[in-house]
Each structure stands twice: as C-alpha cells, then as structure tokens.
Amino acid sequence: MDSNVITFNQDTEDLDLRALFRDVRFRQAMAYAANRQGMISANLNSLGESRYGPGISETFWIGDATGFPSFGFNLGQGAQLLDQIGLQKDAQGMRHFADGALVEFTMLTVQGSTVLTNDAVLFANDLAKIGVKVNVRPLDLNAVIDQLVGSRPPQYEAVRITINGGDGDPNLLRAVYQSTGTLHFWKYSDETGQDVPDWQLQVDRLLEQQAQSLDLSERYDLLSQFQTVVAQNQPMIFLYNAQGLEAYRADRVGNFTGTVQNTTLLNPEIVFRK
C-alpha cells in the first residue's frame, strides 16, 4: 500500500527550521493544514480516501477507529498550534521566528508529476493563509531521491512524495519507521541514539515485537499501537490513499481474482477464457 505524504527534514541545516520541524505541535499544525479532500477531488476525480496515519495492509490496517488520532482539515486549529509555538505574525500576516527570521521553507516535489506538484501547491496556498511561506520546487526524480537518501544528513527541508509500501508486509516498513532504518529520511540522526524522542523508541520496540511474534492477534494489537503512536506524532503528514478500479467480462473470463498490488491478476495460472 503506497503512502502519499509530506515530510519535513528534522536534520535540516537551518537551526530555526530544525527546531520547528522537531516540534510535534508544528507537525500536527501541518496535518491540520492539509486539505486532503481537496487534493483527492482535484487530482483523483474523487477516487481516494483520506489518511491520517500509516496504513499497513488490508490485513493490519486499523483505520480510523475510536480514539485513533486524526487531524482533519482545519486551518484555525493549525493556526492555534503555531501561536502556541510562539511564531508571531507581522502586519502582512506572515509568521516569524523569535530571531525575526521569516517562517519559510522549500518543498521539493517530482518534476513531471502533476499530482505531486498540485498537492504541494495546494498545501502551500493553504499554509500562506495561516502565515507560513512555502516555496514549491519541482526537481528531477533522481535529484529528489539524492537529496532525501543520497547524503547524511539529507539536503532538503520539506518534500511531497509517495512511498511504495511493497506488498503490505509490516516488516518492510521498518526501514522507514525504525530509528535505525535505512530510509528513516526525516531524521537520520535518530540512528546515532542522540535526542531520540520517547515516541520513536516506542515505535522501535513495537516494530521489533511484532516482527518476532507468530501470533496474528498479537501482531494486530502491536501494529494498532504502532499506528496510533505514529498518527499522534506525525513524523510524516499522511494525505490519502488512491483508489483503483478493476473490470473484467464475467461471461468471458473465469476465476478472475483482483488484487490491491500493482499486478492485475493475483493467480494468473488459474484464470481461463470461457
């Protein structure tokens, strides 16, 4: 299951932005500022579903159950959190750090991807309404990948990307969510063991435990806890899952079984033409 996300580099060289990106109130404010339904309507012909946390797979997705943290589109709530952080507005309504610097960052996206770029522009326009300036910068895909994972620390401030979830096995996502993961690109410094927040240590523990368990119900419970912790702390701003459609002629094809994977057929060896 692919994850459509906006991510902030918590190891960025700009000290003001680094402290801001590491503040959970800022990330929650950004989650409130994401107009997911607007993105789905504009880019997917409404064929999508809003997400507020890390959907794992059809088997382990906990969904938005009672108590599951969600940050629906609410610019007022986002602005309140920015106020709590102490980001003051000037006469034009733009926010500033305590040292007077403008709250401004560059968001990378993939050149040629209309969906990613449109999402980034929509997000930037909404953030401007609550005093945050975002510069959208489309780059070649290889350049984006290089800035995210080609160097330590990564050379980006924010990015709108899609993370391929593979076949949905939760173990595959350990590379992204665990502090020592090779794709833990929002804060590679976690792998050094310095300044690792408690919630990240909890994520590490839960993912290790679910990987060692052979009990499906126990894994489900551990992954439920994992998804809740991640959704509350928003290391990535989760946007939506795109929906897909599959069609076939029932009068001409037998044993057709659809799949959520990239391939159209789940068991092509048993499909036959009538």
TrEMBL record:
One of its GO terms (biological process) is peptide transport. It holds the Pfam family SBP_bac_5. Keywords: Signal, Transport. The keyword Signal applies. The keyword Signal applies. GO terms for molecular function: peptide transmembrane transporter activity. It comes from the Bacteria. Transmembrane segments: none annotated. Residues 4-148 form the Solute-binding protein family domain. Belongs to the bacterial solute-binding protein 5 family. This is Solute-binding protein family 5 domain-containing protein. It comes from Fraserbacteria sp. (strain RBG_16_55_9).
